[in-house]
Protein: Cysteine--tRNA ligase
Organism: Pedobacter heparinus
Amino acid sequence: MDKGLHLYNTLTRTKELFEPLHAPNVGMYVCGPTVYSDVHLGNCRTFISFDLIFRYLKYSGYKVRYVRNITDAGHLEGDRDEGDDKFAKRAKLEQLEPMEIVQKYTLGFHDVLRMFNTLPPSIEPTATGHIIEQIEMIKVIMDNGYAYEANGTVYFDVEKYSASYNYTILTNRNLEDMLANTRELGGQDEKRGRLDFALWIKAKPETIMRWPSPWGIGFPGWHIECSAMSAKYLGEEFDIHGGGMDLAATHHTNEIAQSEACNHKQPAKYWMHTNMLTVNGARMSKSAGNGFLPGELFTGDHPLLDRGYSPMTVKFFMLQAHYRSTLDFSNEALDASEKGFRRLMNAVTLLDKLVPAAESDFEIDPIASNCIRAMNDDFNSPVVIAELFEATRIINIVYDGKGKISVAELGKLKKLVKDFVFDIFGLKDEEASNTELNDVLEMMIDIRKAAKENKDYATSDKIRVGLQSMGIQLKDSKEGTTWNKV
Ligand code: AMP
Ligand code: ZN
């Protein structure tokens, strides 16, 4: 039988029983977007995956504090503290203040996630709002002997840290190999070791986003913000730290190093990583130029798209894959998801129209426990969807009068749909929420009914056939006429 929630922990490379440090409270930190440009669909996949996790933890009775940051400073183009500051570069390009860039793309990010019906996090802290906390943390790391200053920039000393801790604990890579694969230090390099990374970076004369610090005017490195903000809002040790898989090797590896060098503790008990959305097998990313913007996907206005797909279709497409599997984008896959999603939503709209009988040909408990078991097995949403299609089949059979369902089983079926379709998956029926369409269709149905009563079959047929050609099917029964999108 079900043995409680198990999740895959990158740190131990196993599926583990989830045992929060301070149940029923759960602290979860997820690396948020770098808001220097529009989020692409790949980014959305990661945030939709953690929304599923957040929703299921809440459904399971935990009191979750979900912290998802906004990176609005310190993210340089190169992984090795080189290249332009992403915000400054974009600001120059758009002729805006860096903070206008941050504001513009933060709002855009929120708009997109709202379209996907994700829940807002409990706290959404920004890097620029926590400069003091980052400076304080760097000071402690230096006092503990794991960082050094060189000409106004502070570097984390990976070699020194590795003498007492395991720098590659998260990805289990070999440190020697990593060193061999990392470029040698150049003559200009201030770093002592090849793997050292910046905690604080000295401002150049042209740097706009700059703050005073004990080491002069500068700005924080990218990794330190997450260590400082997770500790501030969730404590030095918390339950879950998440992000996309691409962050594990550098950003999260460095976060662990910073937190341990500061607090002598592993920050998170469970590290969770979502897999990538790919296009023809290649990771979707801003730099590869294959990153659809969600808006382009909804309108279909992109060379790789045959047509547009609604936000819920796209979300359903994502939920049909497990969060740790790669998911390859294609028009065919989205077409299939659209059909599946409509089939599910049509059944959901029929639920309220089912007439219960004294007996039941169906039992809902096994379906519900299969769903729970799947979610408890590392949030296996595709298995839940297969179970929901079984529920869909039952709804259609009962609606077509080919099977019976009792009041009690119908109640369970309604609860199953509410819990999994709406509360845990966060799906919504875009057709049903289109109240204008609903109202117009109700009016057409009324006109058709009146026409039939007057034996004006030309009009009633015209309405039925006309709607059919628009993909709307009318169905007459004893209770009246209903409509379906086909
Ligand atoms: P960024 O704005 O680049 O810092 O990324 C925000 C989040 O999106 C991070 O957790 C990344 O790991 C994640 N991410 C980036 N590209 C993809 C992708 N193709 N598929 C899934 N997640 C991604
Ligand atoms: Zn982070």
